[in-house]
Amino acid sequence: MSTQQVGIDLRLLGQVRVRRDGAELVLGSARRTAVLCVLALHAGRRVSREQLVAAVWGDDPPPSATGNIYTYVSTLRQLLEPARGRWTGGRLLSSGDGGYQLHVPRDAVDALRFESLRGTARRHRSSGDGPAELAALASALRCWQGDALTGVPGPFADVQRQRLTGLRIATAERHADLLAETGHPEDALRALRELVAAYPDREDLGARLAAARPGGPEPERPAAAARAGRPAGVVTGADGTTRSGPAVDTGPGHRPERETLFGRDVAVRRLRRAVAGITDGRGGSLVIEGPAGVGRTALLTAALPGAGDRGGYRIGWAVGDEVADRTPLGTLLEGVESALRGDPVRRELEHLAAGTDRYAGVDVDVVERAVTLVRRAAAEQPLTLVIDDLQWADPTTVQVWNRLGESVGELPLLLVAAVRSGAPERITGGEVIALGPLEHDPAVALVRAVAATPPEPEDLARILDDAGGHPLYLRLLAASGAGAGSSAELVAAVEAQLSPFTGDTRQVLRAVALLSAYGIRLPGTQPAGCTMGELAAVTDRTVDDLTRALAPVRAGGILAARDGTLAAGDRLWFRHRIVARTLYESTPAPLRVTLCRLYGKRLAAAGAAAERVMGQLLAGEVPLDDALAAWLVEHVERIAEAAPRMAVVALRQAHAQHTLDPARRLVLTAWLARVLLREGQHAAAAAGWVAARTSEPDLAGEMRWTAAYSHERRNEFEAAAEIARTALRERRIAAQWIDRLRLLLGRVRRQLPGNPTEPHLVRSRIMDGEAPLAGSPVTRDR
Hints:
6 domains; AfsR-DnrI-RedD_regulator
């Protein structure tokens, strides 16, 4: 069954509804509906499971989130294709490569159809066809049946709801303007009344309606929030604290809620100085750069006011969106629409965008004309343009932005862009404000502000160590109280941040995590990362190939390494330990065991140190079979010298493995006793086990002495003396150990408690290990 043979109609601009061949489908739960909305707005594009989890649950998914996604998708497939066989792949909703894709035409989704009609209207406007533009705008507005994504939960729905609402308002305003221009003022008034009724909190819409009425007053500027001396979107409480509230401006440049910032005071002051400078005629270009989750958006929100006329200058906001249709100049227009309402420049830019072929690439003439228009607007009144996530803006907007940046010093024009580190769309020129990890004190303050209860010192230290100063990871770890281990929300956050990278890059990154895991898993050690040579050995790829695959994650702040081209001996490490831990723990256990066994084998074949190989096997919790035990017997002395703590872990595992060859198990347990003694731990149990089973006099003597000395060191003198006497009496040990045991008895003798019936024993009989028989006469020691 092909998609052309099935009539699918998805309506997201209002209550979410789906019709199949004219029959409405019952979607069921709200989160299942949310999953469908994400897939619909990505129609024709793959969406990873991790993206779906983050879109539906955000930073707090339940442990069952991934399983729920499987269930939701399975149910949606059955709804969309009821005739599909149980074991056949979906054609409307397919899966593969860790994600899902909805195969429907863009016109089948009303939200995408609405955006397409907006583009059609712009093209008619550029050609001067007013009636055709009016018809296209009317058709676009008829796509709406209420608030976008009504009742759909999740952060993705929240962002898209705001974005689409802003586009709806801009479309309705243009529709009303065109009605008035074409001699239909009453229709224009009616359209504005409907808009004000739909969005009563929008002061600017009320002002427009008042101005449109015959004899209506000129709207007062700036908005009420600015008149009250506080930025839009911030509500002051009775206790003097501030919290996020409904923003006055909720158009295309609407920003997310404000949040408390930690450790970004210098950046906030720099941004505010730049905004203040444009009122004095000083322009500039600033680029806020940092990895995903570092707080770029939070910084913009805290430092800059909302869109509109701020009394002396205008400011416009836009957000690059990887989901939105990348219409040429589309992102720039969103910022202009929120800053230049009523300005002829806005209309000229709309004409220019509408006449641009979206499939023809970047048109140099269009770029130059757009630059000229923005410069003209800034010359008339100081202008600030802010674009968050500029890396997802359309290429024409990026080119215009770079060209404007070359001349900001000549005009009161401030450009502020936020971009992800390592983004493919590069911003040229401008002052870069790099957001890196938080320093210790701000990181501690953030953790204490987020944690439900003050963390214990050891938990706080573990959170700081795992997060490495990354604000998002600090928040998640503090909120969940998970200083160690990876909760579901951490898995979702890490996977969401890695999702922009290719499958090949993510696969290599997981190999780095598995190679780094021995430093994370073993107690008392630090993440050691891995060398490029080790990575090449386990992946069977060249160093040059791996360098290319890892370039994006190095640029994106995920991996650290020395600058420049990497050589085989150069080391890679994760900037934030929790990323390595999460990648390790989210790898299914059977696959993890298989990969770590394979990696250990390939490291050994490449000549890696024995302790490196052993660490890899332990990190993967690879079961110790006879083949691995034979290898361990061969290399145990080296491992015990180089990494005694690791040796203890491996040797305890060998001792507990009852199915191993008895001879190998005996040798490895003896080494366990030696290493425990050397490390100051209690070795009596392991040593006694070996002594009871070995037939070699030298090993038996060594183990008897090890057990006795271990007790002596713990001030357990009676136990030490008893082991020594028994060994001396049995006389099955080598001579050197007889001498050492006699010396030990001499040391502990004075610590033994007195015996009322046998207060003194003959020294020679004690030293020979002989005890008096019951009832025998006692000879005093002379």
